[in-house]
Design goal:
Two copies of one chain form a homodimer.
Chain A: E1 6-15, E2 20-27, E3 33-40, E4 44-49, E5 55-63, E6 68-72, E7 75-77, H1 84-96, E8 99-110, E9 119-129, E10 141-147, H2 148-156, H3 163-178
Parallel strand pairs in A: 4-9
Antiparallel strand pairs in A: 1-2, 2-3, 4-7, 5-6, 5-10, 8-9
Helix pairs in contact in A: 2-3
Chain lengths: ~180, ~180
């Protein structure tokens, strides 16, 4: 069954700092017209930096929607017109101070395809050279070093709820440990 | 470093069908007051149904924000006051027609903790009994049977972009195949 929803028109209902909300009319394959709500987001990157000893550099950061400190991979939003790879190099440097010899593409993910256009591009960073972190003003985060196996145990114990972080850790495990 | 952002006040800027957008003022630990945008979402569940032969029952569904058909685990939003487990039983039945002897908790994930309050509760469903799918009006989806190993290959080939689906598949693999 082919099923396509055809956009008829739309209206921006909210235009904020990070997101924009659009409310469209769309025609279903049965001819019925429905409303479709889309949260538009610029997308972003997430980078799992791992050194030669299997240590990963993670950030612990306050996340306002959950009033909670979360352990996540370094990440950030795409700036207007920015390529994901360049954004990954920039965010890795800004948040951890590292430069990497190699950024391995772990694929992209749609965080909430039912209502949001957000796409996150994930990378594994290897060949790390220490530099200097330079955070945005008003950005507070701590870099923490954990071994990949310790982080995978934390995933199993459900101590890491952030979706992009779980995906990057489990994909890195597959890539580095399971496919040799 | 403890770092907390204290909510001062907020305003609902958009109240839609699925999401609500709130714009708050929050006080940072350095005393500065910033604006924090939160997309409020009721949260939901995702269920990976797997039979005794290792076959998984997936849904292929048009996702409007990407104008694309995506292969995903059966999933749905929590209704007001609904418990995740009850929602999982309901969505599994509605989308695939299956009832399950066992729903194994795969943990919860925050899809976009930077700006959205959405939490998805993930389950592995085993002991499947065929019933009858009864979709919502205006819901069009196809159920497809794929083996878990085939789906993991699709994850490796980046053919499955949906975050919750990738997490459920990789966690099921860890649970069923890696920890024996």
């Amino acid at each position: 069954m082919e099923c396509i929803e055809k956009r008829l028109d739309g209206e921006v209902k909210y235009s904020g700092v990070i997101v924009k909300v659009r409310l469209d009319h769309a025609e279903l394959e049965n001819g019925k017209v429905v409303r479709r709500e889309v949260v538009e987001h610029p997308g972003g990157v997430g980078i799992l930096p791992i050194d030669g000893e299997g240590n990963c550099y993670m950030v612990r950061q306050f996340r306002y929607p959950f009033s909670q400190q979360l352990l996540e991979i370094p990440a950030g939003k795409l700036e207007y017109g920015e390529e994901p790879l360049g954004c990954a190099v920039r965010e890795l440097s800004e948040e951890t101070g590292f430069e990497a010899d190699e950024l391995i593409d772990l694929g992209s993910c749609y965080t909430s395809p039912g209502f949001s256009s957000e796409v996150l591009h994930l990378y594994l960073a290897r060949g790390l050279h220490a530099g200097r972190a330079h955070l945005d003003e008003d950005e507070f985060l701590n870099v923490e070093k954990h071994s990949l196996s310790e982080l995978l145990d934390m995933v199993d114990r459900r101590e890491i709820p952030d979706a992009k972080t779980v995906i990057a850790l489990l994909k890195a495990d597959r890539l580095l440990n399971r496919k040799a």
